[in-house]
Amino acid sequence: MADGQGVTPEDMQQYLNLDTDGDASVLADMISTAEDAVTGAIDDTIGIDVYRAYPLFNQAVRVLVDYMYYSRGALSDQNKAYPPSYAYMINSIRWKIQRDQAAKAGVTDGTI
Length: 112
Fold this sequence. Notes:
mainly alpha, globular
Protein backbone atom coordinates (compact mmCIF):
# COMPACT_ATOMS: atom_id res chain seq x y z
CA MET A 1 0.00 0.00 0.00
CA ALA A 2 1.38 3.39 -0.97
CA ASP A 3 1.80 5.96 1.78
CA GLY A 4 -1.24 8.16 2.14
CA GLN A 5 -3.40 5.94 -0.04
CA GLY A 6 -5.29 4.37 2.81
CA VAL A 7 -6.82 0.93 2.93
CA THR A 8 -8.23 -0.44 -0.33
CA PRO A 9 -10.56 -3.38 -0.97
CA GLU A 10 -7.61 -5.25 -2.45
CA ASP A 11 -5.58 -4.67 0.73
CA MET A 12 -8.49 -5.95 2.82
CA GLN A 13 -8.94 -9.03 0.64
CA GLN A 14 -5.30 -9.84 1.25
CA TYR A 15 -5.49 -8.98 4.96
CA LEU A 16 -8.57 -11.16 5.43
CA ASN A 17 -7.16 -13.89 3.17
CA LEU A 18 -10.21 -13.76 0.90
CA ASP A 19 -10.65 -14.88 -2.67
CA THR A 20 -9.93 -11.81 -4.79
CA ASP A 21 -13.02 -12.38 -6.94
CA GLY A 22 -15.64 -11.36 -4.41
CA ASP A 23 -16.74 -8.88 -1.78
CA ALA A 24 -14.79 -5.88 -3.15
CA SER A 25 -17.84 -3.58 -3.03
CA VAL A 26 -18.79 -4.83 0.45
CA LEU A 27 -15.23 -4.21 1.63
CA ALA A 28 -15.18 -0.73 0.05
CA ASP A 29 -18.33 0.19 1.99
CA MET A 30 -16.88 -1.22 5.21
CA ILE A 31 -13.62 0.68 4.69
CA SER A 32 -15.55 3.92 4.26
CA THR A 33 -17.59 3.19 7.39
CA ALA A 34 -14.46 2.31 9.36
CA GLU A 35 -12.65 5.48 8.23
CA ASP A 36 -15.67 7.55 9.27
CA ALA A 37 -15.77 5.79 12.65
CA VAL A 38 -12.08 6.36 13.34
CA THR A 39 -12.04 9.99 12.24
CA GLY A 40 -15.29 10.63 14.13
CA ALA A 41 -13.76 9.19 17.29
CA ILE A 42 -10.74 11.45 16.99
CA ASP A 43 -11.44 14.69 15.12
CA ASP A 44 -13.59 14.83 12.01
CA THR A 45 -12.33 18.30 11.08
CA ILE A 46 -8.97 16.82 10.03
CA GLY A 47 -8.90 15.68 6.41
CA ILE A 48 -8.91 11.97 5.60
CA ASP A 49 -5.65 12.32 3.65
CA VAL A 50 -3.92 13.42 6.86
CA TYR A 51 -5.19 10.33 8.67
CA ARG A 52 -4.28 7.97 5.84
CA ALA A 53 -0.63 9.02 6.15
CA TYR A 54 -0.51 7.34 9.59
CA PRO A 55 0.12 3.58 9.46
CA LEU A 56 -1.68 3.12 12.79
CA PHE A 57 -4.82 4.76 11.36
CA ASN A 58 -4.78 2.33 8.45
CA GLN A 59 -4.31 -0.59 10.84
CA ALA A 60 -7.24 0.60 12.97
CA VAL A 61 -9.35 0.69 9.81
CA ARG A 62 -8.24 -2.87 8.93
CA VAL A 63 -9.04 -4.13 12.43
CA LEU A 64 -12.49 -2.55 12.39
CA VAL A 65 -13.25 -3.85 8.88
CA ASP A 66 -12.08 -7.32 9.93
CA TYR A 67 -14.38 -7.17 12.95
CA MET A 68 -17.34 -5.91 10.92
CA TYR A 69 -16.75 -8.42 8.11
CA TYR A 70 -16.65 -11.47 10.34
CA SER A 71 -19.40 -10.22 12.67
CA ARG A 72 -22.02 -9.64 9.98
CA GLY A 73 -25.35 -11.01 11.15
CA ALA A 74 -23.99 -11.93 14.56
CA LEU A 75 -24.02 -8.56 16.29
CA SER A 76 -26.65 -9.62 18.81
CA ASP A 77 -24.24 -12.32 20.00
CA GLN A 78 -21.36 -9.87 20.52
CA ASN A 79 -20.44 -8.83 24.02
CA LYS A 80 -18.08 -6.03 22.90
CA ALA A 81 -18.80 -3.20 20.51
CA TYR A 82 -15.20 -3.11 19.23
CA PRO A 83 -12.11 -5.26 19.56
CA PRO A 84 -9.86 -4.09 22.45
CA SER A 85 -6.96 -3.54 20.04
CA TYR A 86 -9.10 -1.06 18.08
CA ALA A 87 -9.72 1.06 21.19
CA TYR A 88 -6.00 1.04 21.96
CA MET A 89 -5.17 2.19 18.42
CA ILE A 90 -7.76 4.99 18.53
CA ASN A 91 -6.27 6.36 21.74
CA SER A 92 -2.74 6.14 20.34
CA ILE A 93 -3.71 7.85 17.09
CA ARG A 94 -5.76 10.55 18.82
CA TRP A 95 -2.84 12.00 20.75
CA LYS A 96 -0.33 11.66 17.92
CA ILE A 97 -2.55 13.35 15.32
CA GLN A 98 -3.65 16.11 17.68
CA ARG A 99 -0.03 16.78 18.69
CA ASP A 100 1.12 16.81 15.06
CA GLN A 101 -1.72 19.11 13.99
CA ALA A 102 -0.98 21.49 16.87
CA ALA A 103 2.69 21.58 15.86
CA LYS A 104 1.74 22.37 12.25
CA ALA A 105 -0.51 25.16 13.48
CA GLY A 106 2.34 26.56 15.60
CA VAL A 107 0.56 25.90 18.89
CA THR A 108 3.00 25.05 21.65
CA ASP A 109 0.61 24.09 24.48
CA GLY A 110 -0.82 21.05 22.62
CA THR A 111 -4.25 22.52 21.88
CA ILE A 112 -5.51 23.33 18.44
